[in-house]
Amino acid sequence: SYIVPSTDSHGVEIWRTDGTQAGTTFAASVPGGAHLLGGGRMGTRWMLVVGHALTQSSIVLTDGTSSGTR
């Protein structure tokens, strides 16, 4: 499972969890006041649409690891 909180101070953060504290790890963040617009599962990865400012957006693909997040 993935947790994707979004705050003004930290932007969007991507966390992977198995539901336990020990099994919850930080994967990546999209800084700069970014906010989550939507997303969904694509095979073994998650695609997230992240908004920046008022008119820009980007796509983030993740497998739940830092090295697998682009």
Walkthrough of the structure:
The protein has 70 residues and is mainly beta. It has no helices and seven strands. It is globular and about 35 Å long. 14% of the residues are buried.
Report the structural category: mainly beta
The number of helical segments is 0
Overall strand count: 7
Oligomer: single chain
Rg over alpha carbons: 12 Å
Measured by DSSP, the beta-strand proportion falls in over 45%
The helix content, as a percent range, equals under 10%
SSE layout and pairing:
Elements: E1 2-3, E2 6-7, E3 11-16, E4 25-30, E5 35-42, E6 45-52, E7 56-62
Antiparallel strand pairs: 1-3, 2-3, 3-4, 5-6, 6-7
Keywords:
56% strand, mainly beta, single chain, 70 residues, three-stranded antiparallel β-sheet
Summarize the structure.
This protein has 70 residues and is mainly beta.
